[in-house]
């Protein structure tokens, strides 16, 4: 039976540690980009607004109050849709998502 020399074993361990470390570094960068709060004062591009300076990000950038009150349901279909995009909710910037609240009136479709 062949045994692995301690030198080869140490090299393999070093490689595994380096691989795991590089994986964590690359993932942490991706997570950092997911929190790009949009700055509506700057021009909008295909991927959304440019990122706001992190030192200027406030709690209000992550709060959207547009869903607190239902909209009027007096139209033909007796429903109303409130939408939240990155224009009104800067925390959604660059994530490729939006949120919506749908209100139905009595007998609404």
TrEMBL record:
Keyword Nucleotide-binding belongs to the record: no
Coiled coil stretches, renumbered: none
SUPFAM superfamilies: RmlC-like cupins (SSF51182)
Name of protein: Uncharacterized protein
InterPro entries named among the record's database cross-references: RmlC-like_jellyroll, RmlC_Cupin_sf
Cleavable signal peptide: 1-30
Keywords associated with the record: Signal
PANTHER family from the UniProt entry: GERMIN-LIKE PROTEIN SUBFAMILY 3 MEMBER 3
């Amino acid at each position: 039976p062949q045994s692995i020399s301690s030198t080869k074993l140490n090299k393999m361990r070093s490689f595994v540690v380096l691989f795991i470390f590089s994986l964590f570094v690359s993932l942490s960068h991706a997570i950092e980009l997911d929190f790009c709060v949009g700055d509506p004062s700057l021009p909008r591009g295909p991927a959304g607004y440019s990122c706001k300076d992190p030192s200027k990000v406030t709690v209000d950038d992550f709060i959207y109050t547009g869903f607190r009150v239902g909209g009027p349901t007096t139209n033909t279909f007796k429903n109303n849709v409130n939408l939240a995009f990155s224009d009104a909710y800067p925390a959604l910037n660059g994530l490729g998502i939006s949120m919506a609240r749908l209100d139905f009136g009595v007998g609404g479709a």
